[in-house]
Amino acid sequence: MLALSFITWDINPDIISYPKEIRYYGLLFGLAFFASFTLIKKMFEHENVSEEWLDKLLMYCVAGTVIGARLGHVFFYDWDYYSQHLMEIPQIWKGGLASHGAAIAIVIAMWAYSKFVTKGTKSMLWTLDKVVIGVALSAAFIRVGNLMNSEIIGGQSESKAAFFFKYPAKQSISSYFFTSEDLVDIEKPTSTVVKDNFKYPISNVSVLIENKNVIEEDVNDFYNKFNFYKNYEYKPENENSWHKEEHFFVTKEKPTLTKTADGFKLNFKIGIIPRIPTQLLEAGSYFMVFLLLIWGYWKREWYKREGLIFGLFFLLMFTARFIIEFWKVHQTDFLANAELNMGQWLSIPGILIGIFFIVYSLMKNQKDVA
Questions:
Q1: Residue 100 contacts residue 76 (beta carbons within 8 Å)
Q2: Residue range 136-160: mean pLDDT, rounded
Q3: Which end of the chain is more exposed for a tag (fewer CB within 10 A), N or C?
């Protein structure tokens, strides 16, 4: 019996495409802010804090998160592109947000909030201890949104828990033949092929095309781009030098073309590349951090030790991010061949900041008790 077990992820990122596009990612982003706002409101009420402060806190958090996440992506991950397309930097609806940028901007926003809203009556750490609990929950929501978008993928895997991101594979194929992804059918695998000690499932694909001229003009280009057997430099352990968003390759068998009542049907075989679902690994990790912090707030009264919750958040979130990055496909070519990638280098300061504020909080508490 062939070992072809993996999870097929065939989700259209759009909940609604017409008349206005609504995506799961946007919905989850909005739910994240709503859930965070509700949690922080409960904490403000618990500590008898003015509700007027809460409304302004939401504005500072939203502005800091969106602006910081966008600029983080622009400068940390894709500056080569945006340096040549400056007018596209504000176009966040096209995608491209980075959590490291959001973390930096939220800290800056909370400094401004403490200065101009609470005006010194509450410290920046007092505010951050509450905000980061909501941020941990929001981060889990957003990583689920990344899963719905089939983005921020992991390396290839033969595990039964690996994901084949079928929808973007269909999109890649359909775009070459100027047709809809709905007219691309990727069947269940029927065989495997071994290449560089990795067993790839092989599936039959059919594409319905109305214009035969498209076939004659574009099949060769399609095969040159996606044909695994022509790319002898490709190695799985160095896949970041390959096209990072590929979920398949075409085999060396030549395609066949058949006439149908609706046009022409192109038939060929592809090798499927199942991948580690790093989006779920991060979402699960961040949710566990959220549970720990919310438990510490309500059950252990950690909020009485200013900076402790903030420090734990930075330490645990960025440690999780640092570890999971080992299984991710690099999001930028910068440092692609280095032992640590951009996400890991950006996580190291976060880990150190977390340790500092945990120690600071515990030492300050001891002095206050003494």
A1: yes
A2: 93
A3: N
Q: Are 318 and 99 in contact (CB under 8 A)?
A: no
Read off the pTM.
0.86
Distance CA 247, CA 228 (A): 12
Single-letter residue type at 178: F
Q: Is the pLDDT reported for residue 237 higher than 50?
A: no
Query: Alpha-carbon distance 136 to 317, whole Å?
Result: 8
**pLDDT tens figures, 182-216:** 999 999 998 998 887 888 999 999 999 877 777 76
H/E segment holding residue 22: strand 22-23
Compute the distance between CA of residue 208 and CA of residue 359 in angstroms, rounded to an integer: 63
Helix, strand, coil percent content, the chain, rounded in steps of 5: 60, 15, 30
Report phi then psi at 246, rounded to 5: -80, 140
Q: How far is CA 275 from the centre of its chain?
A: 14
Kindly report the average pLDDT of the chain as a whole number: 86
Q: What are phi and psi of 152, to 5 degrees?
A: 55, 60
With b meaning 16 or more CB within 10 Å and e meaning fewer, what string describes 52-76?
eebeebeebbeebbbbbbbbbbbeb
Q: Scanning the structure block, which residue is given the tokens 């945006």?
A: 82
Domain segments of the chain: what residues? 7-153+277-369, 163-272
How many CA atoms within 13 Å lie on the side-chain side of 165?
Answer: 27
CB contact at 8 A, 152 and 328: yes
Q: For 69-111, what is each residue's pLDDT tens digit?
A: 889 888 888 888 888 888 888 887 666 778 888 888 888 998 9
The label of the residue with tokens 């909030």 reads 113
Pick the range with the lowest mean pLDDT from 34-43, 238-247, 307-316. 238-247
Report whether 222 contacts 247 (CB < 8 A): no
Rounded CA separation 26/207 (Å): 31
Q: Which two tokens stand for residue 144?
A: 């689920």
10 Å Cβ neighbour count for 106? 22
C-alpha distance across the termini of the chain, in Å: 69
Output the CA–CA distances (angstroms, integers) from residue 289 to 8, 202, 279, 349, in the order listed: 28, 39, 15, 18
What is the average per-residue pLDDT within 319-345?
81
**Cβ atoms of residues 223 and 250 within 8 Å:** yes
